[in-house]
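USER: Note each token:
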Amino acid sequence: MTLGAIILAGGASSRMGADKGAMLWAGVRAVDRVAALARSVGALQIITVGACDYGLPFVADEPPLGGPVGAVAAGVAALLEAGHARALVLAVDAPTARPEDLAPLLAVQGGPGAAFEGLHLPMLIGAAAIPLDAQPDWPLARLVERAGLRRLICPPEARDRLRGANTPNERKRLLAALAAAESRARPA
């Protein structure tokens, strides 16, 4: 089964106060950092789902601002139409996640997919796992449960990166960690 990726970018960004997908993280838009992450772990196609077209393949929220489960279902349907039976679902507000953070999810073979315990995103979900009665306004926890996704232990060092930034203070903390990590990675 080939892997596609969905970047959820449909929230109102009310706690952040600005479009989270367009915010710069070390000079790169959040949506572009998340797309690069998806490509780095093998996603063959990347679709953003939400109210904004960021210049990547795009599916509009239906209904607009209707909820994350509706966005996941719309993205999975678009990926399935393009021939991808599995979807890596990522949040646009987690642009500091790393490939190694996603490795436990991507290691799950077969079955409906997986998500980390205590986090609903990122998730790996098979197209067949989306419940036929799924409602756009369901909480993601209900989708995870009803789809029968395996719950994995989240590596503690990855939790903040995977949880992402919903507020300016969370963004500030993640930006500082990103700058420190990039500083350590530069040759002396």
